[in-house]
Amino acid sequence: METRQTNSEPRRRWLWLWPAGLIALVLMTAAGVVAATIGSDERPRTNIGQLLDDVGIEPHSGAQVPLDIDLVDEDGVAVSLGELSGDKPIVLALVYYRCPMLCNMTMDGLVRSLTHLKLDAGQDFTVAVVSFDHRETPELAAAAKRTALERYDRPGAASGFRFMTGTEDQVRRLADTVGFGYRYDPSRGQFAHAAGLMVLTPGGVVSRYLYGVEFPARDLRLALVEASQGTVGSAADRVLLLCYHYDPETGKYGLAIFRVMRLAAAVTVVGLGAGVGLMLYRERRQFPDLEAPSTSNTPPGDD
Known about the structure:
- Helices cover 46% and strands 18% of the residues.
- By secondary structure, it is of the alpha+beta class.
- Among the domains are: 52-229, Glutaredoxin; 258-286.
- The strands form 3 sheets. A 7-stranded mixed sheet has the order 3-2-6-5-4-9-10, with helices on both faces.
- Helix 6 links the parallel strand 5 (126-131) and strand 6 (161-165).
- Helix 8 crosses helix 9.
């Protein structure tokens, strides 16, 4: 009995080597494949640090966008940025239509937010989408516009969405003015770029930035109300702006606690004053005898 246990012990000690050897073989094979792939890839590599230096959004709030920038719309018609401004604020998106991911996410987030607004594109504001890839065509712009309109699905919205292309120098001029960075990466055949929206006043002045690919409907609405300088939105929106503060670092609106406290205090004082006044009014109506007697009721003195 003891002899059998002794003979089986070496076998058991060697059994664990089989899976370990198999794993080692797989790892060595994978390493060889990766090394061969790297060795055979002769495409130029872009320095990541250099690439990221030119990519991002640097806020230029208050900058005047040149209204003479020449672009071409989705119908192939030449249009200047000044023709788009008119009397409505502008939601500006810089993308490129063949972008494999980030630009699509930006446009999806924009349209999703717009569908939750009571404001209407074309009536209350204009959406201006400009491709920073000068090789793209009006046909690509038209296809992107159709996709956006199908998702927005509001009557008469076509005039409120303008999808455009332009020459390299004109688009670069626009991007530099609003602080939007992008750079072509030849090793991947794609553009490295930031994600976000710029909201312009009717006169083309940069008013607000919304960063990322998701744009809360409240933030977009408040940005449009501010950029419109009172021509868009309701009185309630303007009151709401007293309670919310725009943070230029995050591109979002947050509750302004101090403003809310001051507003609440003012409402409380007014409410208390109105309440006290109402109580005094009712008391005088219910108990008119409590009023001070007139001098005519004073008994005459002795002669």
